[in-house]
Amino acid sequence: MRWGIRIPEKPNGAALAALLLTHVTATVLTYMCTVTTLGEVVIWLPNAVLLAALLHFKGERAWTMAAITFASDFFIGAVRFTVVEGGFYGLTNLVEVAIAYQLMARFGASARLDNIASFGRFVVAGPLVAPIASSIAAALAIHFSGRVDLPVASLTLLWWYGDALGLLIVTPLLLAVLDPPETEPSTTAFDAVVVVATCGVAVLILSGLPTRIIGDVSPTPTALLPAVLFIAARYGPRGTALLVAALSVGTAWSQAAGHAPFGPGETHATVLRIQEFVVTLSIVGMGFALLLAEQRGHARVLEEHVRERTAALEETNRKLSRLSATDGLTGLANRRRFDQTLAEVCAVGRADGEPVAVALIDVDHFKAYNDTYGHLAGDDCLRRIAEDLAAAAQMHGGQAARFGGEEFAIVFSGLSGETAAMIAVDLCRDIRARADVHRASAFGVVTVSIGVAAAIGSAASPARLLERADAALYRAKSAGRSRVEIDRGAQPMLIVQA
């Protein structure tokens, strides 16, 4: 099952409207769920929305997106801050996101955060470094406004933690939603049980219901870490980002609602503990998920290489097989392949009672041709004859082969001896009619002699057919060449003048 939103690559009007809606939702959710009764923000979510948009759109229309999110910050915060304070805090947020985006670009982090190296660079550039300047500036402003009675160092730490956690948990989630993969892992019944059980335990821990299990010991959100690792292993970075974000916001809400998920304690110290828990949850969960995803990716690449290599080897074997069955000079089947084909055709003929015919072809006075014109010309002559034989064999469903030297052979399945002889006569005439000059021949041109033998059913023996065809060929050459003779077994040989 795939979940996510396909956003266009260019920040058009619809994309900018979606950015505004998401930023407003994140801001409202922050004020509703992650702000304690003392006004301390456990997790600040909106900055992650702008950073994810900048990464997804590769910085296009950055000023427009900055103006949209600044307006969202300013107007929603108007109920809490003065105009000057709202404007100042909005600017610090923009500066923080700009620093994070520029540092990620400088560090060469992937905008998709789809590998452990890019996620590590993102953690350094975004959550770790980018909020420092804005945290100091905001802490000083809050301190001098007198709104909160805390040291500047504590305010800086709280602000830095809140912004860092927002970037850490929401940016990967939004990027995963904006760019869903083509395939998602299937959900098994066991997966469903684990997910439902995790949700149930999370509700018990975060809702403030009685959860004591052994004496005075109560489970804290830390007990959910094994479930996060399970989701990381089964559903990868996307599923992990969703669960981490849900648990983080849920834990912040639980503290803000007074349920004290980590037990009673001073509010400021408890908030810091929750923030430390969220850091651990996100780093461990996302890091584990990305590490497994990379290993699986490497395994897929290796498997693909193995498949490609196997396919290449198979193709090489096929080529070698073709080469081992093909005559290198003429391109016809070689003697080995011809013998195999003849044996197969004879076996079928014996089983089905079909006739089998064999024609042996010899180039007349070929030694004299080589002596007169040279071996290269002789090779060309054999190639031309091979083309004629291949065409005739293909037309009549036979197999042509180079039998050896200047001798060729054709095997026909389902043809009588007379039919094979007539095909041989046509070949003799066609080759002679081409009029390739051969001064050492009595005919003055290149000619061939052919011996044909045929058998039906149980008489179709490869060795016997070749023996009879060879005898017919010998008679054709002895009788003056450029002719066809057919051996019909018990009947006398038939001489066909070509």
TrEMBL record:
SUPFAM superfamilies: Nucleotide cyclase
UniProt main location, coarse: membrane
Enzyme class: transferase
GO biological process: cell adhesion involved in single-species biofilm formation; negative regulation of bacterial-type flagellum-dependent cell motility
Limits of the GGDEF domain: 354-489
Domain of life: Bacteria
PANTHER family: DIGUANYLATE CYCLASE DGCC-RELATED, REGULATORY COMPONENTS OF SENSORY TRANSDUCTION SYSTEM
Protein name: diguanylate cyclase
Source organism of the structure: Methyloraptor flagellatus
Cellular component annotations (GO), alphabetically ordered: plasma membrane
Cellular localization per UniProt: Cell membrane
InterPro entries: Diguanylate_Cyclase (IPR050469), GGDEF_dom (IPR000160), MASE1 (IPR007895), Nucleotide_cyclase (IPR029787), Rev_trsase/Diguanyl_cyclase (IPR043128)
One term of GO molecular function: diguanylate cyclase activity
A Pfam family of this chain: MASE1
Keywords: Cell membrane, Membrane, Nucleotidyltransferase, Transferase, Transmembrane, Transmembrane helix
